[in-house]
Predict the 3D structure of the following.
Amino acid sequence: MQKHVSRLLASFARALTAAVLVAAVAGCAGARYPAAPANASAPNYNYIVGPGDTLSIIVWRNPELSLSVPVRPDGQVSTPLIDGLVAQGKTSTQIARDVEKELGKYVRDPVVTVIVTSFVGPYSEQIRVVGEAAKPQFLAYKQKMTVLDVLIAAGGLTDFADGNRATLVRTADGNKRYNVRLDDLIKRGDIGANVDVLPGDILIIPQGWF
């Protein structure tokens, strides 16, 4: 009986040691990168138009020249009197000035306003969510967007996610990597784990240890 108990204790000790080692490895893996800065958004950010956006082009006192038009996959738009105007990579104000310049060949002193009515954004500024998100996807960046906003859009984490080992790849910083604590944010309500995202960020959510 005593030998049986000793074997059980030895087995338990080995299992406990293995569990501690796994936890230590997981903890080290989660701390591979520095924590993401809490505040990163720039106050002077201007939205950049990309393929798939929809623009409302309004020409003052010329309703026949005003219309809603999609930005084509090649980044250009076509309007009455204008064919193949580059819109990708520009702000709505820059596009308005370009339209005024082109229309000025046909209309005296045109006044143009451009409003973006649906948002996709250029590929370089989209936020991408990959790995163990419920709905991996890309999102158009919005001013002061945070990791929490991204997770809500992506439907949260899967049951297999190890959220505290998630990585934020920041292309604006030369693909620098940061650690983000998604489990603490979502499951424990730690708002201190919520951080800003920037245009072009990639959120990578790994699978947990089992």
Observations:
- The radius of gyration is 25 Å.
